[in-house]
Amino acid sequence: MKKSLLQSSRPKLHSHFINGRWGQTAPNGKSFENRDPANGQLLSVYPEATRRDVEDAVAAARKAFGMWRQVPVAKRGEILLKAMRFLEERKEPYAHAMTREMGKVLSETRGDVQEAVDTAFYYAGEGRRLFGQTTPSELTDKFAMSVRAPVGVCALITPWNFPMAIPSWKILPALLCGNTVILKPSSFTPDSARHLAEALQEAGVPDGVMNLLYGSGAAVGIWLTEHPGIDLVSFTGSSLTGSKVGETCGRIFKKCSLEMGGKNAQIVMDDADLSLALEGALWGAFGTTGQRCTATSRLIVHERVFKEFSEHLVARAESLRVGNGLDPKVQMGPLINDAQRAKVHQYVQVGKNKDGATLLTGGQILCKGDFENGFFYAPTIFHGDTGMTIAQEEIFGPVTVLIRVKSFDEAIQVLNDSVYGLSGSIYTQDVNRVMRAIRDMQTGITYVNAPTIGAEVHLPFGGVKRTGNGHREAGAQALDIFSEWKAVYIDYSGKLQRAQIDTHGSEA
Predict the structure, then answer these.
(1) How many domains does the chain contain in total?
(2) Residue range 440-452: average pLDDT?
């Protein structure tokens, strides 16, 4: 990296958001830099949270919980609606800031902010719905119902690839249900988390209800997960880290929601619209530089169309314009950092040398000319088989593997040959195949004639197997992790009634 970039003037040191205040950070405290992955420019500096910061945030959240849980749900929804309007007004500057710290192209960061807008709009509406249930009692003069109650203080640990959308998936339903929250975003994208917190503060979220701490998962994330004052942990990230979070929460009886890895596949059958399937494959594999848990990292193609499809895919991948995401002509930005690029390149070497896969295009670090100061990688396509490492492990970069199959049944078998089960896609004109695919794909999300990416906020998001622990984000289903069901019985008979006993009598 050029020396001049490393010697950029140091910008303002930002601060944590605790109990409604952007606190002053001690000048001798530890901090980290936020840099543009496209050129290395220093964007901002943030503090590393200390244990004292964690204690302060938990204390503030616990104190605020007693008040916030009693605010009418409709009123909580109105605050989310105000936050939505602030996000709409600032969509463009927030998107530009996100591209600079995360790298993905501007059209995608606009979509990221829009997803937070849509999520706020959706959960604001749930403020008038948050339904429980009524049901007949088996006894006379007795009323039975179930209602939702808040969980308490929620620690929300989020990744860098969707730095506003994913935090909004967690924060907004948690707040609507009456919980208070502490957000610990990725250290690679702190600006976007700060912008979301600012919008919520200006919308009128009371002091202590929403708190924001910066720092590493190895320190701050662990402190939050283990803290006895935290009632729930919601984590999005790698399966390795998620398994440790789940183990800790299980040991200390803490509610836990895990959204983790994926090795998603798109099936292309012999009757598919190949032009449409090609567009889907390019977007699914190389959108967000492949840094999505739903990225299309496997392409399962019927042998009758394999040659035509693969040739066109390689040509289109080689024509993709890679560069700074702020350039409107660029179609794929950099990877988030040098460590992620090194990881991707290591997998490529495994594919070529250990797996024996055929490299069809890409496979190299881009580091000359305009790429000199960024973390760029060429769009990469292999031809391999389902047993290869690159076809089994999540790479999280612009790498996809073409796998040839002879039949629909084999395609489904290959798609399911994964420890993950997040997203799957099939391109076909045969409605019978479509229905069988919907039934037989071992995925939490299934697309028909569309790529493996593109979830909408009013549907549940999540997967099976090692992708998660069964909970879902987004949609009405997200309310289930952020609330507790309470059964309520009201007996107005004026006498003791014994369920199961007085209904059916008892044997002598």
Answers:
(1) 2
(2) 98
